[in-house]
């Protein structure tokens, strides 16, 4: 066991954990003020539900020896996941540290989906949804790409830190959730204005995500070595390129670029570089960040003209950013910086781009079908959507009997809103 590698992995675990509260602030600032508590809590609850699910069954489903499609049962309850290194997973750090690092990925992935259902999904339904989604969607896809004998990994798919496993799966699932739930009710608090209610929260959340992403990507090297350094540098450059690209494009269209747009652009760049962080050169990372931002920006514009109500544009940012990153990894990957990968199209190997495209299609299609099945199940036994009145009054009061801003809540009630609320809301 290498103590330096172990120390870096422990630090990376903490960095990736921080990303989920960072996401909570990022999403919480983007929504309307009367949905802030519910939005933040949807991210925060994943820290509890998914950590338990992963420890009991998830890690075994994803990483225990099994077949090409699903892991076995040998790691149920983390049985056999000890303090010694395991050559199959991480040869220089404790197996338990590797399992915990992977837990943090499993936690943030379903939390990403919450941005598509803001303000109109029952909290109880959401809690059951992320539990079942983790079991039915995340765990199998993680095994296909990263697990021993997973068929996409055996095919040659490159996913350094979760472009397919995390972002494609969450982005596609977000679209399915938005379609099944339907659009927000006309006249609800959230449809009165699309402006973020707290821009500092958005910037804070994006900054925490950026900070934590160094553990997300560089930590995936599982060692304090040159690959970790490469992943850290490419992560920084891709996010920076995407931020600048987003600001430039927004300036050309609106003349006055927004701080919110800059934050979204940085996050898109982080998403886009995730699959290729340890496989591409610094210049390749700049190209990936730039192209990923352009793809996400245009996707957001196109979807805004449709009836699809993906509230916080989860698909445009994470889904399209992940898809672009996966495909561009097939273009810019090179063994000149990492011998464990493969050369991409730019370096004379078009086959890798084909493999990356197959990986995106297979994982995306499965995520869509399995997510729909989970939603149907949850709707049958729990119910999915909040009443229209709850959307108009604000989901924070209805679902949690709390408000992020008590002075504003008192002012709201002083205008006579309390008399309109049914007993169950009060």
Describe the fold and architecture.
This protein is an all-alpha fold. It starts with a helix and ends in a 12-residue tail after the last helix. It has 16 helices and no strands. The chain is 66% helix and 0% strand. It has a single domain, classed as Ammonium transporter fold (Orthogonal Bundle). The protein has helices at 3-30, 36-44, 46-63, 95-113, 123-146, 151-155, 163-181, 199-218, 226-254, 259-273, 282-303, 314-332, 350-381, 388-393, 395-400, 406-414. The longest helix has 32 residues, at 350-381.
What would the keywords be for this entry?
mainly alpha, about 65% helix, single chain, 16 helices, disordered C terminus, about 0% strand
Order of helices and strands: HHHHHHHHHHHHHHHH
Helix percentage range: 55-70%
Gap between N and C termini = 57 Å
The assigned CATH architecture is Orthogonal Bundle
* Number of DSSP-assigned strands: 0
Largest sheet: none
For the record, what is the CATH homologous superfamily label?
Ammonium transporter AmtB like domains
CATH class: Mainly Alpha
Helix/strand structural class: mainly alpha
The protein's oligomeric status is single chain
């Amino acid at each position: 066991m290498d103590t330096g590698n172990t120390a870096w992995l422990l630090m990376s675990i903490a960095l990736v954990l921080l990303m989920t509260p960072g996401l909570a602030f990022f999403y919480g600032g983007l929504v309307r003020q009367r949905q802030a508590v519910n939005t933040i809590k949807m991210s925060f609850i994943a820290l509890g539900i998914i950590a338990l699910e992963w420890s009991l069954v998830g890690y075994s489903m994803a990483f225990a020896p099994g077949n090409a499609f699903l892991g076995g049962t040998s790691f149920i309850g983390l049985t056999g996941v000890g303090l010694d290194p395991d050559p199959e997973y991480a040869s220089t750090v404790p197996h338990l540290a590797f399992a915990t690092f992977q837990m943090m990925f499993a936690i943030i992935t379903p939390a990403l989906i919450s941005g598509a259902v803001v303000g109109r999904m029952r909290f109880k339904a959401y809690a059951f949804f992320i539990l079942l989604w983790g079991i039915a969607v995340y765990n199998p896809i993680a095994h296909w790409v990263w697990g021993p004998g997973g068929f996409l990994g055996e095919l040659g798919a490159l996913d350094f830190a979760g472009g397919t496993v995390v972002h494609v799966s969450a982005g596609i699932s977000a679209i399915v959730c938005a379609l099944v739930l339907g659009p927000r009710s006309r006249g609800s608090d959230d449809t009165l204005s699309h402006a973020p209610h707290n821009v500092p929260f958005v910037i804070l959340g994006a900054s925490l995500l950026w900070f934590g992403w160094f553990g997300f990507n560089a930590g995936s090297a599982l060692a304090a070595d040159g690959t970790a350094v490469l992943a850290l540098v490419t992560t920084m450059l891709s996010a920076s390129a995407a931020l600048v690209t987003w600001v430039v494009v927004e300036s050309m269209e609106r003349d006055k670029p927004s701080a919110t747009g800059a934050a979204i652009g940085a996050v898109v760049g982080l998403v886009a570089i995730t699959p290729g962080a340890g496989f591409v050169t610094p210049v390749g990372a700049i190209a990936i960040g730039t192209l990923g931002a352009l793809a996400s920006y245009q996707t957001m514009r196109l979807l805004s003209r449709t009836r699809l109500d993906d509230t916080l544009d989860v698909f445009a940012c994470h889904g399209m950013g992940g898809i672009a990153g996966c495909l561009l990894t097939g273009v810019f990957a090179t063994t000149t910086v990492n011998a464990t990968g493969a050369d991409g199209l730019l370096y004379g190997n078009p086959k890798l781009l084909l493999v990356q495209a197959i990986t995106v299609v297979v994982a995306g299609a499965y995520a869509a079908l399995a997510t729909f099945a989970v939603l149907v199940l949850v709707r049958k036994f729990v119910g999915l959507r909040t009443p229209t009145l709850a959307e108009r009054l604000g989901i924070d009061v209805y679902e949690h009997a709390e408000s992020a801003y008590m002075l504003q809540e008192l002012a709201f009630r002083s205008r006579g809103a309390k008399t309109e609320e049914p007993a169950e809301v009060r």
